[in-house]
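Fig. S4 source data, part A: sequence.
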Amino acid sequence: MQKPTTYPNALAVLAASTVMLLPTSAAAFEFTLSGQVNRLMMGVDNGEESGVVNADNSVSGTRIRLKGHGDVGNDLTAGIYYEYQLQSNPSDKITADSLDSDGIGGNTGDGDNFSNRNANIWFKGNFGKVTLGQGSGAADGSTEADSSGTTVIQYASASGDLLSSMEYGDSGVTVGDARSAFDGLGRNDNIRYDAAMGDFSLAGSYGNGDKVELAARYKKDSLEFRVAAWDTSDSTADSITGYAISGTWEAAAGFNLTGSYAGDDSDGDPDNIYLKAGYKTGNNAFGVDWSETTDKAAGDGSSVSVAWVNQLMAGIEIYASYRVESLDDVDGEDDIDALIGGARIKF
């Protein structure tokens, strides 16, 4: 029996217990329980092996979340945010070994992903917002300004989310070795501060391991820009400084453009560029993108993809994409071709 299947029940008990423990003066404290299931089928050919796999889409994986907030007086709001990921066979764990030359893909076996994404408390007032606990650092999402409507299957970090563990031919190099969007430091145990001033917002965070992140954002109507920088040093690695900028613009007719550039000063000074053009019409969104990471590993990794997303109704999306991942100047490398179809249902 898989113990992680008990987590949704545990989460419900946590929510109920929290409500019962609240004093009567905090009756206005409100909770919402939500989540999503995101599954795909993916046909993959890496030049050596090919097959079809049934996986959880790690671009935006299956998860459940609990949020709560309430007015505690003196223009102060307090809240909690807890989110748990419940993936079976995540797409970023699919390996070439799990593909079969007869065309039938297998489960990765040890690829399940049950983990905390967010577990924090926050306070918000005229001073801004302070968040304490497991959650996104200030630079997380800095490469992800994107108004295309196709981000459930196509965005700056999609190469790694979909195919990170897949090897290029028999090169010994995986997509995760060669590709990265360099999108901040992700989710850590942080203390974070956010402030908004009109169309601008600023954020700063400090996390375990001396992780320092700073970010700024401008968003008005159809235009958005994000910029961020970060630095980290701990007992097991040298200090790394990173940077990112992204922007997106959408025309009234539905045409949109997106781009990002990011990198860090680790060995080789790797960086990544991402470009995307999209079009929205009715409930449909279309996108074509190109990306290249240089100096992260032996050879430079690049990708090109086309994508379609249809919003069937509120909370239900279906999608399809064709993606090609390439690696330059490495013995044994072959392109990775992936044909993908799936659906995300939110509740």
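Fig. S4 source data, part B ends here. The two ends are 26 Å apart (CA to CA).
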